[in-house]
Protein backbone atom coordinates (compact mmCIF):
# COMPACT_ATOMS: atom_id res chain seq x y z
CA UNK A 1 0.00 0.00 0.00
CA UNK A 2 1.37 3.41 -0.90
CA UNK A 3 2.22 6.10 1.63
CA UNK A 4 -0.59 8.26 0.27
CA UNK A 5 -3.13 5.47 0.74
CA UNK A 6 -1.90 4.85 4.29
CA UNK A 7 -2.16 8.53 5.10
CA UNK A 8 -5.69 8.65 3.68
CA UNK A 9 -6.73 5.72 5.91
CA UNK A 10 -5.00 7.04 9.04
CA UNK A 11 -7.27 7.80 11.94
CA UNK A 12 -6.93 11.21 13.56
CA UNK A 13 -6.62 11.60 17.34
CA UNK A 14 -10.09 13.16 17.35
CA UNK A 15 -11.54 10.16 15.53
CA UNK A 16 -9.73 7.78 17.89
CA UNK A 17 -11.17 9.61 20.88
CA UNK A 18 -14.64 9.44 19.33
CA UNK A 19 -14.30 5.65 19.01
CA UNK A 20 -12.87 5.09 22.51
CA UNK A 21 -15.13 2.68 24.44
CA UNK A 22 -16.00 5.02 27.37
CA UNK A 23 -16.95 7.79 24.93
CA UNK A 24 -19.05 5.41 22.83
CA UNK A 25 -20.79 4.26 26.03
CA UNK A 26 -21.39 7.87 27.08
CA UNK A 27 -22.93 8.65 23.70
CA UNK A 28 -25.07 5.53 23.50
CA UNK A 29 -26.29 5.08 27.07
CA UNK A 30 -29.60 6.89 27.38
CA UNK A 31 -28.92 7.95 31.00
CA UNK A 32 -25.19 8.73 30.98
CA UNK A 33 -25.02 12.16 29.33
CA UNK A 34 -28.17 13.57 31.00
CA UNK A 35 -26.80 12.40 34.37
CA UNK A 36 -23.54 14.21 33.67
CA UNK A 37 -25.48 17.34 32.76
CA UNK A 38 -27.44 17.22 36.03
CA UNK A 39 -24.22 16.74 38.02
CA UNK A 40 -22.66 19.66 36.12
CA UNK A 41 -25.60 21.94 36.89
CA UNK A 42 -25.57 20.99 40.58
CA UNK A 43 -21.83 21.70 40.69
CA UNK A 44 -22.31 25.09 39.02
CA UNK A 45 -25.05 25.91 41.52
CA UNK A 46 -22.67 25.07 44.35
CA UNK A 47 -19.87 27.21 42.91
CA UNK A 48 -22.09 30.15 42.00
CA UNK A 49 -24.13 29.92 45.20
CA UNK A 50 -21.11 30.09 47.48
CA UNK A 51 -19.44 32.83 45.45
CA UNK A 52 -22.72 34.75 45.25
CA UNK A 53 -22.95 34.92 49.05
CA UNK A 54 -19.39 36.20 49.48
CA UNK A 55 -19.65 38.63 46.54
CA UNK A 56 -22.95 40.02 47.82
CA UNK A 57 -21.40 40.47 51.26
CA UNK A 58 -18.59 42.50 49.69
CA UNK A 59 -20.74 44.41 47.23
CA UNK A 60 -23.96 45.34 48.99
CA UNK A 61 -25.10 46.59 52.35
CA UNK A 62 -27.49 43.86 53.45
CA UNK A 63 -28.29 43.78 57.14
CA UNK A 64 -28.20 40.00 57.31
CA UNK A 65 -24.83 39.67 55.60
CA UNK A 66 -23.25 42.73 57.24
CA UNK A 67 -23.20 40.81 60.50
CA UNK A 68 -20.78 38.31 58.99
CA UNK A 69 -17.07 38.97 58.61
CA UNK A 70 -16.28 38.65 54.89
CA UNK A 71 -12.98 36.85 55.49
CA UNK A 72 -14.55 34.28 57.81
CA UNK A 73 -17.48 33.81 55.45
CA UNK A 74 -15.17 33.24 52.47
CA UNK A 75 -13.03 30.84 54.51
CA UNK A 76 -16.08 28.84 55.62
CA UNK A 77 -17.50 28.60 52.08
CA UNK A 78 -14.23 27.99 50.22
CA UNK A 79 -14.23 24.18 50.65
CA UNK A 80 -17.74 24.02 49.18
CA UNK A 81 -16.70 26.28 46.32
CA UNK A 82 -13.71 24.04 45.59
CA UNK A 83 -15.80 20.85 45.70
CA UNK A 84 -18.33 22.44 43.33
CA UNK A 85 -15.61 23.66 40.98
CA UNK A 86 -13.86 20.27 40.88
CA UNK A 87 -17.13 18.47 40.19
CA UNK A 88 -18.02 21.01 37.49
CA UNK A 89 -14.57 20.64 35.93
CA UNK A 90 -14.72 16.82 35.95
CA UNK A 91 -18.24 16.61 34.53
CA UNK A 92 -17.57 19.42 32.07
CA UNK A 93 -14.36 17.81 30.84
CA UNK A 94 -16.15 14.48 30.42
CA UNK A 95 -18.94 16.11 28.43
CA UNK A 96 -16.35 18.03 26.38
CA UNK A 97 -14.40 14.88 25.52
CA UNK A 98 -17.57 13.18 24.33
CA UNK A 99 -18.41 16.09 21.98
CA UNK A 100 -15.04 17.69 21.33
CA UNK A 101 -15.62 17.94 17.58
CA UNK A 102 -18.80 19.95 18.08
CA UNK A 103 -17.62 22.08 20.98
CA UNK A 104 -14.27 23.34 19.70
CA UNK A 105 -16.11 25.27 17.00
CA UNK A 106 -19.03 26.40 19.20
CA UNK A 107 -18.87 30.15 19.85
CA UNK A 108 -20.79 29.95 23.13
CA UNK A 109 -18.42 27.24 24.41
CA UNK A 110 -15.33 29.25 23.47
CA UNK A 111 -16.72 32.38 25.16
CA UNK A 112 -17.63 30.30 28.24
CA UNK A 113 -14.04 29.01 28.50
CA UNK A 114 -12.66 32.54 28.16
CA UNK A 115 -15.08 33.76 30.83
CA UNK A 116 -14.04 30.92 33.18
CA UNK A 117 -10.42 32.01 32.76
CA UNK A 118 -11.47 35.60 33.44
CA UNK A 119 -13.42 34.57 36.57
CA UNK A 120 -10.41 32.65 37.86
CA UNK A 121 -8.09 35.57 37.14
CA UNK A 122 -10.43 37.99 38.91
CA UNK A 123 -10.58 35.71 41.98
CA UNK A 124 -6.81 35.20 42.00
CA UNK A 125 -6.19 38.95 41.86
CA UNK A 126 -8.77 39.59 44.59
CA UNK A 127 -7.21 37.05 46.94
CA UNK A 128 -3.63 38.03 46.01
CA UNK A 129 -4.42 41.56 47.14
CA UNK A 130 -5.01 39.95 50.53
CA UNK A 131 -8.07 41.88 51.52
CA UNK A 132 -11.76 41.09 51.47
CA UNK A 133 -12.59 44.52 52.83
CA UNK A 134 -16.07 45.62 51.76
CA UNK A 135 -15.02 49.25 52.25
CA UNK A 136 -12.38 48.96 49.54
CA UNK A 137 -13.71 50.23 46.19
CA UNK A 138 -11.54 47.86 44.13
CA UNK A 139 -12.77 44.89 46.18
CA UNK A 140 -16.36 45.91 45.61
CA UNK A 141 -15.78 46.34 41.87
CA UNK A 142 -14.21 42.89 41.71
CA UNK A 143 -17.15 41.39 43.61
CA UNK A 144 -19.56 42.97 41.14
CA UNK A 145 -17.46 41.74 38.21
CA UNK A 146 -17.42 38.26 39.72
CA UNK A 147 -21.21 38.13 39.80
CA UNK A 148 -21.49 39.43 36.22
CA UNK A 149 -18.82 37.07 34.89
CA UNK A 150 -20.41 34.02 36.52
CA UNK A 151 -23.84 34.98 35.19
CA UNK A 152 -22.27 35.21 31.73
CA UNK A 153 -20.60 31.79 32.21
CA UNK A 154 -23.97 30.26 33.09
CA UNK A 155 -25.64 31.99 30.14
CA UNK A 156 -23.02 30.79 27.67
CA UNK A 157 -23.23 27.29 29.12
CA UNK A 158 -26.94 27.19 28.37
CA UNK A 159 -26.45 28.66 24.89
CA UNK A 160 -23.98 25.93 23.88
CA UNK A 161 -26.85 23.67 22.85
CA UNK A 162 -28.51 26.35 20.72
CA UNK A 163 -25.75 27.97 18.67
Architecture overview:
The chain is built from 9 helices and no strands. The chain is mainly α and about 160 residues long.
Mean pLDDT across the residues is: 88
What is the distance, rounded to the nearest whole angstrom, between the alpha carbons of the first and last residues?
A: 42 Å
As residue ranges, the low-confidence spans are none
State Rg. Answer: 20 Å
Shape: elongated
Estimated share of beta-strand residues: under 5%
Number of separate helices: 9
The helix/strand class is: mainly alpha
Report the order of strands and helices: HHHHHHHHH
Can you count the beta strands?
A: 0
Helix content: over 70%
Query: For the report, how would you describe the main beta sheet?
Result: none
Short description:
With 163 residues, the protein is an all-alpha fold. It has nine helices and no strands.
Question: What keywords describe this structure?
Answer:
163 residues; mainly alpha
Secondary-structure map:
Layout lengths: L2 H7 L3 H6 L2 H8 L3 H28 L3 H4 L3 H29 L1 H4 L3 H22 L8 H23 L4
Helix pairs in contact: 4-6, 4-9, 8-9
